[in-house]
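Task 17 of the worksheet. Students: predict the tertiary structure of the chain below and write it out as structure tokens. Keep your answer in the requested format; marks are given for formatting as well as content.
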Amino acid sequence: MEYVQGFKEIMEVSAHLALATSMDNKPNVRVMSHFYDQEKGIVYVSTFKQSPKTAEFAANDKIAFTTLPEPAGRLVRVTDAIVKKSGHTVYDLKDGFTKNNPAFEGTLEKMGPMFDVYEFHFNEAIVTLGPMKMEKITL
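Model answer:
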């Protein structure tokens, strides 16, 4: 239970993650803003329409990601997720995107129509709560 609670706490406060994609056997990693919907168990990210990562998503819907470590070294890592385009807009999810990243509100005002929203779906996560404190959990 400690690791499930840690997962929820980390995902609640995390504003950025490192996303790993792969296309034509070439890996690519980038840092992105995100938010986690605790009720639905979905990570949402926004990206510019027609960006290179949208082509990567279309070519290979299997992704991995990790939250950026908190000062105490706590993080969540997912190695087997599926990405799909969301039916939501950035405006639908504005509160989620701006909760841990208030600067996104200015970006949304200026460039909101240029964004698409994607969802990350997964059933397992590796939760690190500190040095030598790591466990895989099923959600």
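Marker's comment: The helical segments are 2-13, 52-59, 94-99, 104-111. The domain at 2-138 is CATH 2.30.110.10 (Pnp Oxidase; Chain A).
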